[in-house]
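thread: overnight batch results

M.L. [08:02]
morning all. the overnight job finished for the chain we discussed friday. pasting input first so we're all looking at the same thing
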Amino acid sequence: MRNLSLLTDLYEFSMANGFHHDLPTTNATFDVFYRRVPDAGSFVIAAGLQQVIETVRDFHFDDSDLAYFRQLGLWDADFLDYLANFKLDCTLQAVAEGTPVFPREPLLTVTGPIEQAQLLETVILNILNHQSLIATKSRRLTFAAAGRPIMEFGARRAQGPDSAIYGTRAAVIGGAKSTSNVLAAKLFDIPAAGTMAHSWIEAFPDELTAFRQWAARYPDNSALLVDTYDVLNSGVPNAITVFKELKRAGHQPVGIRIDSGDVTILAQQARKMLNNAGFPEAKITISNALDETIITSLIQQGAPIDNFGIGEKLITSASTPVLSGVYKLAATELNGHVEPKIKVSASREKLTIPGRKQVYRLYRKGTKTAFADLIALEDEPVTTTDTLAVFNSDPLSVDHAHTLSDFDARALLEPVTIDTTAISVKTLRATSQRQLSELPRATQRLVNPDIYPVYMTAALSRLQAELLQRATVKA
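M.L. [08:03]
and the structure it wrote out:
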């Protein structure tokens, strides 16, 4: 991975320069979190941590960077010397990739010298916002497909090569089974999948010849695109002819792909034709600008579809193309004294949760059934045997105070080791599927999902209220 240390906003360097001179021995803790879920869902699938680790591991400034800084003429020689000898001294905590994360919960925290932690803001948000967005969209599509595999087909529609590569990675974490993107498949050990384009059919004198030539080249990978001319009167009959020839030669046909038309009717008729011809095991794959709404509708109509190839609506998260994760100062530390920090805004929903924190997933006692999350101060004991007073973390909530008892708790934020071996994408996908199975089904539905409560401990709630009052008085 190339050095991304300059992938930041100019003011990050200007602030770092000021911090270097004005707060030279101050440490800071920043939280990464989001407030709103894409597509009006209830949670986001965290993704991108491995790329954050790789970026932090290689965070430095080379001679050409320093020459460019001098050319800008914005910062003094002392700060440039500091950058020339830069050694990142920050620690990270994060939730595991694939974890469902709810609004206002830190999914990653950075602690270290304030000038260093500030410089990490933009690149960390760039990585986490992008991959978490695509993983979340993939989760929605996987949910809609109701057990049928989805394949990521979007490289040509992604906003550039990096979006295609890392979008594929995130899509698999979120639930996709395979990709058409060969580079991503190689880099992340993801199954590669694909059939053919219409140009293959058009390049031959007729459709049957095109199918036969494909079968001759790929007798054990004959998935045929049947909608170039006429799905039912040409494509499927010609595919059946070639499938029979393959079967006589000892090969098993894969199936057909439909990329246009009234997919429900075409798939239903194609299924009957394939079954009657003796190919009930032949798969029907569809593609062409699919999203979760279309997939849900197709399944409700009884379309006999085995696989979904999903391109632009997945790789760009077209319905909600931005995840607005933020990077906010939660605490500073000077001479061992930690001072919690809060951001107050005219918009109540932008009120931040102060202090160094831990996030817990709460389960019904003795089960793996999650019923709520809890944000606590980092050094605050969370007892699972006594009744616990908690408060809703949503600053707009009117249902504020609650008590909890008889539960198990699992800490979600874990220390990040920058030299750790990368976890395989398939393992991260399995982790995500397992954690999703622990959540209430009603929180996962695509339309009007149930609200999953995220609480704060009483101590954290009091701290927030005190800092809010103090800030209001100052204003």
